[in-house]
Amino acid sequence: MAKQYETVIGLEVHVELATKTKIFCGCSTAFGGAPNTHTCPVCTGMPGSLPVLNKQVVEYAAAIGLATNCEITQVCKFDRKNYFYPDNPQNYQISQLYLPIARNGYVEIEVGEQKKKIRIHEMHMEEDAGKLVHDEWDDTSLVDYNRSGVPLVEIVSEPDMRSADEVMAYLEKLRLIIQYLGASDCKLQEGSMRADVNLSVREVGASEFGTRTEMKNLNSFKAIARAIDGERQRQIDLIEAGRAVVQETRRWDDNKESSHAMRSKEDAQDYRYFPEPDLVPIVISDEWIAEIKARQPEFRTEKLERYNREFDIPRYDAEIITNSKKMADIFEATTAICGKPKKVANWLMVETLRLLKERGQEPEDICFAPEHLAKLIELTEAGTINSSVAKEVFEKIFDENVDPEKYVEEKGLKIVQDDGALEEVLKKVIADNPQAVADYKGGKEKALGALVGQTMKAMKGKANPGAVNKKLREMLA
Known about the structure:
Layout: E1 5-16, H1 55-67, E2 71-72, E3 75-76, E4 79-82, E5 92-95, E6 102-111, E7 114-127, E8 131-135, E9 140-144, E10 151-157, H2 164-181, E11 193-203, E12 213-216, H3 221-240, E13 248-253, E14 258-264, E15 274-275, E16 282-283, H4 286-294, H5 300-310, H6 315-322, H7 325-338, H8 341-358, H9 370-381, H10 387-400, H11 404-411, H12 419-432, H13 434-441, H14 446-458, H15 465-476
Parallel strand pairs: 12-13
Antiparallel strand pairs: 1-10, 1-11, 2-6, 3-16, 4-5, 4-15, 6-7, 7-10, 8-9, 11-12, 13-14
């Protein structure tokens, strides 16, 4: 009988914090500037320059620690991690090894009907490295230090996950907690959330862990899932062939859907850690912890419970809306103005998600005002504009945040309320479409739809389809 294998997975998740400036200097953390423009002597490692800690980094890190049920280390400090690599300008990284800011936490995940706690071993603050750009055409490597010194927290889990589904659920839960805190936008495609996967396999029932490898270069949830499946299979194939799995760091190539070895896996002693001499220890008082706790937002789980009590919307809608804090904020603000939660949910679930997908955007990129969506709902409900005009107007609101009342007025999009004008158009449509009229009178209900369509076209969409339908039936009777 074929052997059965179990996958054992732990994650190291790096999250770039949403501070305006870097962890030890005043340079901007904005994404996408021209290479080496967000730099200074500190973050490029110039001799004699000294780091000064950004207090907001500690606040965000402690907030994430509290939200993930960790114990906060009230006296913590920084250490030097020594390694030599071109994107690391000082030849060391300021990180935390001996006294990380948070330890012994967990997040609860749900996969199907099963709930499970994924333990967090520790969470530490550190500075990011620069970015190497390899130009194959010129056969050169360039380095951009804009990212050097951007503040990170690294969240190290215990090896508690057993499948790609559990990994996805854990990452999704972390992403939502951190986004709700406002501590990071967690955009994988911009590198503000990155995950390294530590994975080993063992026979089902074995108590010892297998030899683990670490997978790097994973910048989307799909890439992470593919890398887990690929590495699991690679290790099983090695074991089945009687060969050893080597402890090493591997780089995942998502285009080829395979990985290759980068270097043998280092242990802490390889980095010659020692206490960072240029920074004093951080003391986090009980009062400071209480302040940070008091500022914690309502997280997704609590929101779902409240939506269930307060708003008459399906659970499915509530889950989609609360999957992004930005979306939840817009939903609540718009509902507070117009008092129509189901209508607001429909606009967010259908048209907003459609336009986000078409424009390749994330919910965090939404920039229209809740007031404008509320006004649009009121215009539609009052019968001032019809549903097809409402969609056209919403697209303008989505792209340009226009005031729908002004836009409808300027473009003359209001429904024509003049029965006389509608009757004139209907007479012409009936006269011009004798076949459709005959089909309708012969019992073909569909033919009426064609006549309504012709009327709407003639009225340039400025008629109420319901009123057109009713009037047509009366005239054809």
